[in-house]
Amino acid sequence: MTVETNEPAPRSVMPDRFSLPDEKGRFGPYGGSYVPETLYHPLKELNDAYLEARADPSFQHELDRLLKEFAGRPTELYFAERLTKELGGAKIYLKREDLLHTGAHKINNALGQALLAKRMGKKRIIAETGAGQHGIATASVCAKFGLDCKIYMGAEDMRRQALNVFRMRLSGAEVHGVEAGSKTLKEAINEAMRDWVTNVRTTHYILGSALGAHPYPGMVRDFHRIISKETKRQFLETEGRLPDEMIACVGGGSNAIGFFFDFLEETNVRLIGVEAGGRSLKEGEHAARFEGGKLGVLQGCKTWILQNPDGQINQTHSVSAGLDYAAIGPEHAFYRDLNRIEFAHAGDEDALNAFRALSSTEGILPALETAHGLAHAFKRAKEMRKDELLCVNLSGRGDKDAMEAARLMGVSGLPQMPTL
Amino acid sequence: MMNSDRIAKLFSDCKAEGRSAFVAYVCACDPDFDRSLEVCRSLIKGGVDILELGVPFSDPLADGLTNQLAAQRALEAGCTQEDVFRLVREIRTFSEIPIVFYTYYNLIFSQGVENYARKSKEAGVDGLLTLDLPPEEADELINACKESELANIFIIAPTTPKERIAKIAKRASGFLYYVSREGVTGARDDLAGDLDERVAAIREHTDLPLVVGFGISSVQQVVEVAKVADGVVVGSALVNCIPQNLESTPKMLAAIEQKARSLVGGLTAA
User: Fold this and answer.
1) In terms of domains, do A196 and A251 share one?
2) Which of the four, A119, A254, A371, B257, has the lowest number of CB atoms within 10 Å?
3) Per-residue pLDDT of chain B (270 residues; tens, 9 = 90+)
4) Do B158 and A38 touch (CB under 8 A)?
5) B171 touches A: beta carbon within 8 Å
6) Rounded to whole angstroms, how far apart are CA atoms A179 and A196?
């Protein structure tokens, strides 16, 4: 089937999406490899190994098989009929990444990188986690492959996501609480990088977002690209055309870039990333990098960062641990400059309302991260025509957030997950 | 005096004396501006040759716990980048010791790279060592340092392949810093076993002075490293004197001066 509703992208503006990152790991002015010398060469080796694996049909075949049999791909494209009626605007579709094994899109990348680590002969895996979804995905994959696994997690996130901590430990992972700074994702990445600098010869670091030094942003994107490939095919099968608008939440930005990637050159499809607006847009109360951030270098890459005038990285806040991060993936910054991906933000309150609304209209409990994308989608759906199509990447399920959401909604009498 | 001349002169003086240089690391403004100035004065009195000043950063991902906590104390005391420059200016009122900033790139980049280099030079800084800036990403800073006559110091690590050593050496000025082992900063009991070979491999590619650091904390280790290197870097062992004596400034200063003096003693023993 051909896509006749979409004109080809104007070549002068849109680069070939496969040409990025370039050899230096750059997406225009963003990205790069800002790491301590100890990691520079190992990252180059990782890049070489990755490029070789990517070109090897047997690697792709094995990954496809695991994505199907272990992770449960393909995920459904689901028409949210009641929600659509309720909002009275665009037809809303949900790409059900929440139905994947371990509960979120994160498993796509964890499987890919673990397979790569095995190929490179690394027996030990480390990872950071914010909400815990990447930690769970990594721990599960390590259990499956028999790899040693250590997960770094901010102490505040461990409190918010106690259930996920327990699940990681059940899978045999060691979970290390990080007490520094705001005790969330950024500090967990610092600590994971310190571990990696120390143990780089034996250890692979499964970075969980489209962030960090080259080759991570491009590699993580590639492993999530399957989301957009499936979505495109499914829209053509169900609607006979592509959606008019696509929305995803953006922390580091891995679910969003995976969901958008095969639509980047379909310039009639509007792409919107939703950042965490937190309590307010005052410094320290949110994680909306494009609202108050500026260009800087953090944890391996050059991108938009929330920082003070002195160059110190700001503390951030979001109700969702997975979006609570001071920097955004470099590829998002690049496509924002081209006006190809637009950005909006949704606050804690909006996200909690969306969390509740999707549960009550569709019986689907979304992750609080995902709820930020939904909150914006609800607003957009009402502004769109009934014959327009809106697709939200339902990046994760909300079971992990039920306790924290109940606490925030003031529900009492629920059993508490003990702090581990 | 041209800034990087202080570095060149120091190494040539040390060579004439037939010894290695002692490079002392502390974090600027740890635990606060006033005491940090006195800490630097004590180190100089204790006989150190080069002062490596850590510029406190919120996310010091190449540093071990000792230096992380030092940066945290400094930032909690309200230390700004302007304070760090002011600290150098104060030191320059009584000392011509070579001073090198040990820093992270966002601190430089956020101020405008050229502007930062110029301000460093004006304050009396001799060189910059940027932990998360490999030479491949450093064009802008290298040019700015040349313009401002600052040394640009790069790190070589145990994971650096031989062919890369030449590339790094070519872009470096002032001196080269060999990280004696993989890992973050911090005191350790043992040193990497292949230090001689690694140092020899680096010297094949450069005539720049070579200092060795990461994990050196005892006189014994100083003696060992001084046998092969032009300079020995000690950080955490000195930094530890600060949190251990927060209740008494005189004790803190005495402890750090004494620690420096005893470690510096290892150089003449070599």
Assistant:
1) no
2) A119
3) 455 599 999 999 999 999 999 999 999 999 999 999 999 999 999 999 999 999 999 999 999 889 999 999 999 999 999 999 999 999 999 999 999 999 999 999 999 999 999 999 999 999 999 999 999 999 999 999 999 999 999 999 999 999 999 999 999 999 999 998 777 777 666 666 788 999 999 999 999 999 999 889 999 999 999 999 999 999 999 999 999 999 999 999 999 999 999 999 988 865
4) yes
5) no
6) 18
Out of A190, A220, A250, pick the residue that ends a domain: A220
Looking at the structure of chain A, the number of domains it has is: 2
Looking at the fold, whether A98 and A167 belong to one and the same domain comes out as: no
List the helix and strand counts (H, then E) for chain B: 12, 8
Question: Which residue type does A44 have?
Answer: K
Residue A360 in contact with partner chain B when CB distance is under 8 A: no
Residue A16 lies in a domain: no
Residue A86 · residue A377 · CB < 8 Å? no
Give the C-alpha separation, B9 to A266, whole Å. Answer: 62
Q: What is the span of the domain harbouring residue A47?
A: 36-68+106-220
The count of C-alpha atoms lying within 13 angstroms of the C-alpha of A194, restricted to the half-sphere facing its C-beta, is 22
Closest residue in B to A38 (Cα–Cα): B157
* Residue of A297, A298, A314, A315 best to disrupt the B interface, most CBs of B under 10 A: A297
A46 interfaces chain B, CB cutoff of 8 Å = no
Are residues A147 and A61 located together in one domain of the fold?
yes
**For A313, which of B58, B72, B133 is closest by C-beta distance?**
B58
| A333 domain-assigned | yes
Residue with tokens 């990681």: A168
> How far apart, in whole angstroms, are the C-alpha atoms of residue B113 and residue A297?
13
Chain B residues whose beta carbon lies within 8 Å of the beta carbon of residue A297: 105-106, 109, 132
Residue B57 has its nearest CB partner, among A34, A37, A312, at A312
Q: Which of B52, B126, B224, B230 is catalytic?
A: B52
Tokens of B219: 């006189």
Question: A168, A200, A220: which is the final residue of a domain?
Answer: A220
A99 assigned to some structural domain: yes
The answer on A98 and A110 residing in a single domain is no
My answer on whether A192 and A269 are in the same domain is: no
Residue B58: closest CA among chain A residues belongs to which residue?
Answer: A312
User: Between A34, A38, A199, which is nearest B133 by CB?
Assistant: A34
Q: Both tokens of residue A237?
A: 């099968």
Domains and CATH numbers, chain B: 3-269 (3.20.20.70)
Q: Are residues A214 and A261 both part of a single domain?
A: no
For A351-404, the pLDDT digits (tens) are 999 999 999 999 999 999 999 999 999 999 999 999 999 999 999 999 989 988
User: A255 and A110, same structural domain?
Assistant: no
Tell me which of B63, B126, B224, B257 is the catalytic residue.
B63
